[in-house]
Write a structure and sequence with these properties.
Blueprint lengths: L8 H4 L3 E4 L1 H6 L11 E4 L1 H9 L6 H18 L6 H5 L2 E2 L11 E4 L17 H15 L5 E4 L3 H9 L3 E3 L17 E3 L4 H5 L4 E5 L2 E7 L11 E4 L6 E9 L2 E6 L18 H10 L6 E6 L5 H15 L5 E6 L15 H5 L4 H12 L6 H5 L2 H6 L1 E3 L13 E6 L6 H8 L7 E6 L15 H9 L5 E6 L6 H9 L1
Parallel strand pairs: 1-2, 1-5, 2-4, 5-6, 7-10, 13-17, 13-18, 14-15, 14-16, 16-17
Antiparallel strand pairs: 3-4, 8-9, 9-12, 10-11, 11-12
Length: 476
């Protein structure tokens, strides 16, 4: 190997991260996510990138994008020879950012002397061999394998090599810290915040202007409640500026007179969710909850009411990721909607409940037949969403926990004028490989969209499907 130029001590002591192929195929921008530390790409990683570049899947697109990034880095440097590349290529950094580390590409044959039981021709074992070689060659610095493959990390640790998951795509390390959209007010809230409180009524709602130490912690469109005293409060944060916030009382959807397509809220969180779903000021709603909490039923009921009764939207569009729970049953016959119907069993079940309701919410609802309701619902495949624009639609993204942040951005940006987007999911039921609760697209949008004046989120905590389903969800 060509002799490397001597680097400053601070650079030599920087960590050296060896990237597995699945990291680049999961997030092509991972090359630029290791701050001041160095990145090493084995030949096996480059070979696997080349093998996965063909196709129209997200994996193939990411492999091609990672190759483009590598080409741009190599094209934008003065390194021309193999010795120049072996000495390290500075990774570009944006203006104002601290300098990034260097990119190293494997330019020599490496034999890391792995146990004889590990097949030499397997790409994973070749990468492990590279990590062991680098660890012996540069004992003064920490060499770390980064992989999304759990078994790869286990093998590396069994061989005495440092290995980590790729964390840069995670919104949160602990999903217990995920924004719930609901806050219980302290028992002494009115005493601490209500001394100079103003209140007024407008369009059937009561508004309170409150001041105090809790206000800076509140988010726009966050729900707050206080059920401890003589004057229980359920409200939404409508305005916030510094230590002053305006709270708006909610419409009570637990009462039959306010039923939505014959459906009433059965608990506090369902009432909060219906206030978001029925509000024309909210363009983006996320609902998270375990099975049976009413996410789909409430969303469909609110959608049908505003499409058929209020005519606020022209139709309902439903889409979801087609990730099978078990073995794939193969290709499905028919048109796009016919192919998607087997994936929409939850929608069909909830439509049966809504159509059987005695109080269907208005004259349109009472007169609507099953065929009329279904004529206003369109089922679309995620594969054909790129480039589309939905105008004046009620867009439901079901099973959103299986979307990557990139897929979620693609879907949400399809919304045109007058369109409302509702994302439903349970982050405890992720079926997409390499996605976790912390890196799911649903977690991503909940965290990034909170605090926006036209977005709202509620975590539904209580199951209402049946006592059996509720018990099974918590104990099994």
């Amino acid at each position: 190997m060509a002799k490397r130029s001597r680097a400053p001590r601070s650079q030599r002591l920087a960590k050296l991260f060896v990237l597995d192929t699945n990291v680049l195929m999961h997030d092509p921008t991972s090359l630029f996510r290791f701050q001041e530390h160095d990145v090493y790409l084995p030949i096996g990683t480059l070979e696997e990138l080349d093998n996965h570049k063909k196709g129209i899947s997200d994996v193939a697109r990411n492999a091609r994008q990672a190759s483009r990034f590598l080409d741009e880095i190599l094209s934008g440097t003065s390194a021309k020879s193999a010795s120049d590349i072996a000495a390290g290529i500075p990774l570009p950094s944006r203006v104002g950012e601290r300098p990034r580390g260097s990119l190293f590409l494997q330019t020599e044959a490496i034999n890391g002397e792995l146990p004889a039981t590990l097949a030499i021709g397997k790409a994973d074992n070749q990468i492990l061999s590279v990590v062991r070689h680098l660890q012996k060659r540069e004992p003064e610095r920490r060499v770390i394998l980064v992989s999304k493959d759990i078994n790869m990390r286990i093998k590396a640790r069994a061989l005495g090599l440092a290995a980590e998951d790729y964390y840069s795509d995670k919104v949160l390390e602990d999903t217990d810290l995920l924004y719930t959209g609901v806050r219980r007010l302290p028992d002494n809230f009115w005493e601490a915040h209500g001394r100079d409180m103003e209140s007024w009524k407008k369009e059937g709602h009561t508004y309170y202007r409150v001041r105090g130490p809790l206000v800076p912690q509140l988010q726009l469109n966050e729900f707050v409640y206080d059920e401890s005293g003589d004057r229980p409060l359920h409200a939404m944060v409508r305005e916030k500026q510094g230590r002053v916030a305006v709270l708006e009382t909610l419409r009570d959807y637990t009462h039959a007179k306010n039923s939505v397509w014959g459906i009433t809220a059965r608990n506090r969180e369902q009432n909060f969710a219906l206030n978001l779903l029925m509000s024309p000021q909210i363009d983006f709603v996320t609902l998270i909850g375990q099975a049976g909490t009413g996410k789909t039923l409430l969303t469909l009921a609110a959608g049908l009411t505003q499409v058929l009764d209020e005519k606020r939207y022209s139709e309902i569009i439903v889409t979801r990721v087609t990730v099978p729970l078990g073995e794939d049953i193969g290709f499905l016959p028919g048109t796009e909607e016919e192919k998607m119907l087997p994936w929409m069993g939850a929608m069909e079940d909830n439509l049966d409940v809504l159509n059987a309701s005695e109080e269907s919410g208005g004259e349109w609802g009472r007169a609507a037949t099953r065929d009329l309701v279904r004529s206003r619902i369109r089922v679309k495949s995620l594969n054909f969403m790129r480039g589309r624009t939905f105008i004046n639609k009620w867009l439901i993204i079901d099973e959103a926990q299986n979307l990557t942040p990139k897929q979620m951005k693609t879907l949400v940006t399809r919304a045109g004028p007058g369109t409302k987007v509702v994302c439903l999911g349970n982050i405890a039921q992720i079926d997409t490989p390499y996605l976790t609760e912390g890196s799911s697209g649903l977690t991503y949008v909940v965290d990034r969209m909170r605090g926006w004046a036209h977005a709202g989120h509620v975590t539904l905590a209580r199951g209402e499907r049946s006592r059996l389903a509720d018990h099974a969800a918590t104990t099994l």
